[in-house]
TrEMBL record:
This is TRAP transporter fused permease subunit. The chain crosses the membrane at residues 21-41, 47-67, 79-97, 109-128, 135-152, 184-203, 306-327, 373-389, 401-428, 440-465, 472-491, 497-521, 533-550, 562-584, 596-623. It comes from the Bacteria. One of its GO terms (cellular component) is plasma membrane. It comes from Vreelandella nanhaiensis. The keyword Cell membrane applies. Its main location: membrane. It is found in: Cell inner membrane. Residues 123-548 form the TRAP C4-dicarboxylate transport system permease DctM subunit domain. The lineage of its organism: Bacteria, Pseudomonadati, Pseudomonadota, Gammaproteobacteria, Oceanospirillales.
Length: 637
């Protein structure tokens, strides 16, 4: 029994297949990417048929490239793996062959045939197993709980009970409609989320990731705390392309964490800086990650509007991290890189400055209102054009083929998580649990909107513990979104609030997946890294409350109001950074430090009286800090 526990609770190990099998898997992955490009940009195909083929192919690749458990066979697939691969392909072929009948039948009116029930049952099991292998026990247990609730929850007393749902009814909704497995999350993964990951992969393979790191080094490397500031800037730039905190940590952290440690940063601090910066990358426009795409599809809000709304909150996030890194480095006396260790800015821009063009093209296309699919495709073409300018960055046919394959393999775990999220969403809508949960939140919070927001934030973080951000967002949006909308918050405010806390779950203890990724590089305890990252990014837990009470931070409303709100928020973030670090031109004692913290919160609050009170508190805190009082007296009149 003990040897089965790691297999049940742990994720599988990734395989690096070689030889003929490795070439076949690599080629199949590239072909899947070409299929996605063709069906999303060139020709219109039936959406249900496209997702069936996509999911079938991705499941087959998943069982070939991910073992059954952490100690599973990594050199080649096992017999069980091959059985699962064959089952994935056979089920996909069956659904594709029966596609016309499936899309034309009336759900629940025409009974499912026995082959339908068998194929749907097999697909359900394959999806759950794929989720367990890639995401782990957290999301898998949630999916299983909802499956059991759907099938046997009608026996529960009170409001949790519902009308009995038969197994045939369950499969009919889950597998033969767009309300379950083939719902919004999987649809996003199979279209523009895939294309944006492809954009990031091509940009990285062409040398864009190296350019952004060198640019960050040239700009901030020689300043106080230079290595940590490099991590903040480079992780922000790379994170907006990858959209995955864990991927960002592994990619940029493998370079920045050792450099920070070499120059005197503790193991835990170096990991915390990288985790805080990488997590924020998923909130930084123009890309923001898969969860933002799902938000656009789920809410009907234009992705362009979501990206615009996310600019100020994301900049406040990185201002907080950057300011705290600066203050902490001053407090600890940590130096920057030497002139010899930093690349020259002029040379960096000369050698790779063209890589800024794809980001400009992406942002411009979004602002002009083009669809995310078109934006991602055009931006990838711009990357290819830029790469052709220099021989050192030129992507030939083989490099392009490899980038296509890498894109598909990177999406394997995302697809599994999105498919699982679809099962949960289908279960929630089938049983009416969303409305019941809203009633529960109302019961706990009453008419207090602030308490309802706190409950929603905690739930989003809990749902995100151990599962990808897209899954955490969509589950929280379905469960608590109606509650917040019922409190007269707008659709944009509600879903941006949920998105922020779903993303922050990646670094929030006790299950902080990004911190676990960083711990292997930093050689530090994950909990210490996660705690430090939360401290560095403390503003991110406060700003969402500010923009749900005043849309100025989301760039909605009167221009003057937006400017004033943003300006006071910047001051508030800086004051909070001082309060958290306890340092400003010298150490700040307890009571002034507390004053700076309270004033920072008041400055972020969109209220004129609160700002006026904050000014008084700041003045008192400065008077109570001798070295600041002496410094202010020396300033010219």
């Amino acid at each position: 029994m003990n040897h089965l526990l790691p297999i049940i609770t742990g994720t599988g190990a990734k395989r690096s297949l070689t030889g003929k099998l490795g070439m076949a898997v690599h080629g199949s992955a590239a072909i899947v990417a070409l299929g996605v490009i063709y069906t999303t940009t060139v020709v219109y195909v039936d959406l249900y048929a496209m997702m069936v083929v996509f999911l079938s192919a991705m499941l087959a690749l998943l069982f070939l490239t991910v073992s059954a458990g952490p100690n599973g066979r990594v050199e080649r697939p096992s017999f069980v793996d091959w059985c699962l691969v064959i089952a994935s392909l056979v089920v996909g072929i069956y659904f594709l062959a029966e596609n016309q009948r499936i899309v034309e039948r009336i759900t629940l009116l025409y009974p499912l045939e026995m082959p339908d029930l068998v194929a749907a049952s097999v697909l359900l099991v394959l999806t759950i197993e794929a989720t367990r292998r890639t995401v782990g026990f957290g999301l898998t247990s949630v999916v299983l709980a909802f499956v059991f609730y759907n099938l046997w929850g009608h026996g529960l007393p009170g409001t949790l009970g519902f009308r009995e749902v038969s197994y045939n009814h369950f499969l009919d909704i889950m597998m033969f409609t767009s309300d379950g497995l083939f719902g919004v999350p999987l649809r996003v993964a199979a279209t523009y989320a895939f294309l944006f990951v492809m954009f990031g992969t091509f940009l990285s393979k062409a040398g864009g990731a190296e350019f952004f790191y060198n640019l960050a080094s040239a700009v901030a490397g020689r300043r106080t705390g230079g290595p940590a500031k490099i991590a903040v800037i480079s992780s922000a730039l790379y994170g907006t392309m990858s959209g995955s905190p864990t991927s960002d940590v592994v990619t940029t952290g493998s370079v920045t964490i050792p450099i920070m440690q070499r120059l005197g940063y503790s193991k835990a601090l170096s990991g915390s800086v990288e985790v805080a910066a990488s997590t924020g990358g998923s909130l930084l426009p123009p890309v923001m990650g898969s969860a933002a795409f799902i938000m656009a599809e789920y809410t009907g809000i234009e992705y362009r509007d979501i990206a615009i709304a996310g600019i100020i909150p994301a900049l406040l996030y990185f201002l907080c991290v950057y300011a705290q890194v600066h203050l902490r480095s001053q407090k600890l006396g940590l130096r920057g890189l030497t002139k010899e260790e930093t690349p020259p800015l002029k040379g960096t821009l000369k050698n790779g400055g063209l890589f800024i063009l794809p980001l400009i093209a992406l942002s411009s296309a979004l602002l002009m209102g083009y669809s995310p699919t078109y934006v991602a495709a055009v931006s990838t073409v711009v990357v290819l054009m830029v790469s052709m300018v220099r021989r050192s960055t030129r992507m030939g046919p083989m490099a392009i083929w490899n980038a296509l394959a890498v894109t598909t393999l990177r999406m394997v775990s995302v697809v599994a998580a999105c498919a699982a999220a679809g099962l949960v969403i289908g279960g929630i809508s089938m049983t009416g649990l969303g409305g019941k949960f809203a009633d529960l939140v109302y019961l706990m919070a009453g008419d207090t909107a602030f308490l309802a927001l706190i409950i929603s934030a905690v739930l989003a973080i809990i749902l995100g513990m151990g599962m990808p951000t897209p899954s955490a967002f969509i589950l929280a949006a379905v469960l608590v979104g109606p509650t917040l909308l019922g409190l007269n918050f707008s659709v944009l405010q509600t879903n941006m609030f949920i998105l922020y806390f779903a993303v922050l779950s990646a670094m929030t203890p006790p299950v902080a997946v990004a911190a676990f990724a960083a711990s292997a590089i930093a050689d530090a305890k994950p909990l210490e890294i996660a705690t430090g990252a939360v401290r560095l990014a403390i503003t991110a837990f406060i700003v969402p409350f500010a923009f749900v009470y005043g849309e100025g931070l989301l760039m909605v409303g009167d221009p003057i109001e937006i400017i004033v709100t943003c300006a006071t928020a910047v001051i508030g973030v800086l004051l909070l950074s001082i309060a958290v670090e306890g340092y400003w031109r010298g150490r700040v004692n307890v009571f002034p430090r507390l004053g700076f913290g309270v004033a920072g919160l008041l400055f972020i609050t969109p209220n004129g009286w609160a700002v006026a009170l904050a000014v008084i508190i700041v003045a008192m805190a400065i008077i109570g800090t001798p070295h600041l009082r002496l410094h202010s007296q020396k300033l010219p009149a």
